[in-house]
């Protein structure tokens, strides 16, 4: 469900402030109404429900401030500096001149070489401010030639100022070259590093851009929004590039049985996931109580259904293909079942033709067609095509208005699109059709809670919390209800009760690795118990070695601990398990951020604060 791993999963764990290296502060930023203003930022990262890493954390902070303004202008708690674009010639103020102080307007023989260089720079600054960039470049070039070579700081300023003039002329190669000179002379020169990062962005040197902006973020203590936004932008671009190539050539991988069962449990009107009917079994099977079923050999689809009941998932696609090739009685069902497993193994391109065909089969059972539309719509959303996704869900509602699955899954889509009121209306429609469908009721309650929490509406938050209590009382066997309630309790810093809810969830679903991850994150935020947190996340991997969320979380924690090699290894494992190109792009962004920090540490000796 979307609530378990927010789609905007941010990337700012590297911003964790603390002691060390003289960067960062001790405070953090609080979510609306959380009262967490004194938490270190890595704690807040955990509090919002997903691990964070360098870059998109800025987007989270920006969107939170926007929501606060819309909710009544309660101010900016982020502490980020919102600098305007740096267009003026940048560099340190002119140092004290040598003997016989001059204002830079003359060419006195008494002026030292440095004095004359400063005068040329000042003249260049005047040209720059007048928009005469070519003349400014000439003056800065003169300053460079006059400056004594041992005056590293001053010389670096002149190169940086000339780079600023080249930037105005959009001569990006020259910008990068001059900034490189400036950084060679002054390795922690923030303005030169940031200007070079922007030049690399224009030159499409994404890796170099990321390294420079990472260094800037660390030097600025992750307090400059402009730098954070550039880091976020380049990380996303790199992630998409890497994922596009990797996902196209990836080996299909069947997820764990627990994941597959959880996926099918989110449908109540899905014919293909229902147990085999008596009429589908052979006469011999009907007399075999408690024994494995054997279906008629001439039906690949029925054989696939038998494998589903046996949890022998690897054989399902091939058996469905037999039914389809033979154009058998259950061809529509086989197409839908095969498409579903293509989606589960991450082969969306293979799934789409099967889904298209089922949807176009007018003579097929309407529930099959509606289910195919739901799955195609979900696939479109994963591919960041919300308009096509919405069209498919709306068509499903038109052809099968009494299908509760349409409203349940469309409600989740609406949450992702930040259309909470419409999502709640869809969940209500689902509940009217399936009053005992606990999952939809729990998700509706969570949607209402997030809406109230974001708006900082304390009375609505309390109403939603009361709603969770009613749901777990009414549906004590619904593990998702406890898990979502635990997330809300964590937001409200009711950590002890949240821990109890996760324990109940584990009692109901001991093989659900994701719950162990969330419980592990809770230990970090609640008790600052790193060992216990890692122990629980390791337990998740032991239970399900295909749980990408566990590897991702472990990697993020290792970033915060400064263990970059181990973090990169964890992210790579998660990448190989990603179920969609979009998810893979996000994971590549995390991995690229860790790589960039490794390079910055090697080049400049810069490291962000660690746990």
UniProtKB/TrEMBL annotation:
Region Disordered: start-end pairs: 69-110
TPR repeats: 117-150, 479-512, 548-581
Pfam families membership: TPR_1 (PF00515), TPR_6 (PF13174), TPR_8 (PF13181)
GO terms under cellular component: mitochondrial outer membrane
Subcellular location: Mitochondrion outer membrane
Membrane topology field: Single-pass membrane protein
InterPro entries: TPR-like_helical_dom_sf, TPR_rpt
Keyword line: Acetylation, Isopeptide bond, Membrane, Methylation, Mitochondrion, Mitochondrion outer membrane, Phosphoprotein, Repeat, TPR repeat, Transmembrane, Transmembrane helix, Ubl conjugation
Residue ranges crossing the lipid bilayer per the database entry: none
Main location: mitochondrion
Record text on subunit structure and interactions: Forms part of the preprotein translocase complex of the outer mitochondrial membrane (TOM complex) which consists of at least 7 different proteins (TOMM5, TOMM6, TOMM7, TOMM20, TOMM22, TOMM40 and TOMM70). Interacts with CAPN8. Interacts with TRADD, TRAF6 and STING. Interacts with MAVS. Interacts with HSPA8 and HSP90AA1; both interactions are required for preprotein mitochondrial import. The interaction with HSP90AA1 is direct and mediates the association of TOMM70 with IRF3 and TBK1.
Family: Belongs to the Tom70 family.
Full protein name: Mitochondrial import receptor subunit TOM70
Source species of the chain: Mus musculus
């Amino acid at each position: 469900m979307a609530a378990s791993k927010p789609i905007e999963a941010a990337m700012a764990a590297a911003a964790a402030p603390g002691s060390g290296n003289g960067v960062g502060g001790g405070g953090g930023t609080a979510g609306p109404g959380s009262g967490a203003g004194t938490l270190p930022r890595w704690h807040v990262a955990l509090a919002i429900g997903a691990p964070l890493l360098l870059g998109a954390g800025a987007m989270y902070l920006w969107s939170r401030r926007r929501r606060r303004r819309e909710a009544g202008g309660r101010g900016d708690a982020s502490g980020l500096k919102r600098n305007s674009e740096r267009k003026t010639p940048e560099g340190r103020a002119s140092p004290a001149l040598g003997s016989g102080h001059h204002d830079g307007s003359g060419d006195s023989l008494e002026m030292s070489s440095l004095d004359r260089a400063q005068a040329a720079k000042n003249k260049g600054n005047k040209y720059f401010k007048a928009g005469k960039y070519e003349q400014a470049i000439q003056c800065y070039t003169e300053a460079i030639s006059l400056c004594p070579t041992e005056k590293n700081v001053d010389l670096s300023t002149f190169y940086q100022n000339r780079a600023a003039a080249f930037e105005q002329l959009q001569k990006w190669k020259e910008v990068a070259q001059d900034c490189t000179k400036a950084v060679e002379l002054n390795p922690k020169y923030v303005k030169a590093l940031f200007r070079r990062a922007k030049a690399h962005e224009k030159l499409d040197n994404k890796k170099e851009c990321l390294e420079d902006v990472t260094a800037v973020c660390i030097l600025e203590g992750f307090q400059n929004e402009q730098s954070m936004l550039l880091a976020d932008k380049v990380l996303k671009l790199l992630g998409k590039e890497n994922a596009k190539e990797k996902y196209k050539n990836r080996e299909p991988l069947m997820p764990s049985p627990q994941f597959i069962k959880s996926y099918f449990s989110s449908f109540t009107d899905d014919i293909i996931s229902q147990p085999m009917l008596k009429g589908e079994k052979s006469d011999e099977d009907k007399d075999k109580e408690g024994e494995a079923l054997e279906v008629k050999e001439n039906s690949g689809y029925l054989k696939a259904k038998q494998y589903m009941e046996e949890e022998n998932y690897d054989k399902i696609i091939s058996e469905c293909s037999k039914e389809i090739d033979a154009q058998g009685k259950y061809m529509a069902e086989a197409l839908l079942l095969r498409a579903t497993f293509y989606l589960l193994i991450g082969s969306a391109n293979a799934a789409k033709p099967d889904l298209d065909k089922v949807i176009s089969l007018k003579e097929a059972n309407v529930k099959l067609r509606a289910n195919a539309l739901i799955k195609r719509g979900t696939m479109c959303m994963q591919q960041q095509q919300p308009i096509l996704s919405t069209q498919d869900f709306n068509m499903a509602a038109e052809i099968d208005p009494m299908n509760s699955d349409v409203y349940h899954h469309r409600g989740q889509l609406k949450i992702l699109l930040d259309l909470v009121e419409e999502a709640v209306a869809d969940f209500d429609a689902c509940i009217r059709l399936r009053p005992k469908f606990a999952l939809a009721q729990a998700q509706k309650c969570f949607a209402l809670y997030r809406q109230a929490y974001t708006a900082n509406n304390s009375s609505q938050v309390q109403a939603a919390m009361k709603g969770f209590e009613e749901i777990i009382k009414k549906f004590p066997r619904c593990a998702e209800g406890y898990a979502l309630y635990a997330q809300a309790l964590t937001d409200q810093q009711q950590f002890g009760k949240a821990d109890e809810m996760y324990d109940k969830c584990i009692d109901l679903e001991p093989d659900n690795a994701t719950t162990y991850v969330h419980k592990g994150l809770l230990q970090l935020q609640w008790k600052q118990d790193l060992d216990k947190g890692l122990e629980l996340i390791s337990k998740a991997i032991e239970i399900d070695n295909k749980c990408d969320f566990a590897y991702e979380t472990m990697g993020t924690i290792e970033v915060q601990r400064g263990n970059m090699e181990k973090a990169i290894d964890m992210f790579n494992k998660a990448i190989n398990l990603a179920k969609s190109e979009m998810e893979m792009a996000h994971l590549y962004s995390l991995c690229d951020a860790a790589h960039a920090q490794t390079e910055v540490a090697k080049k400049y000796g810069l490291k962000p604060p660690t746990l």
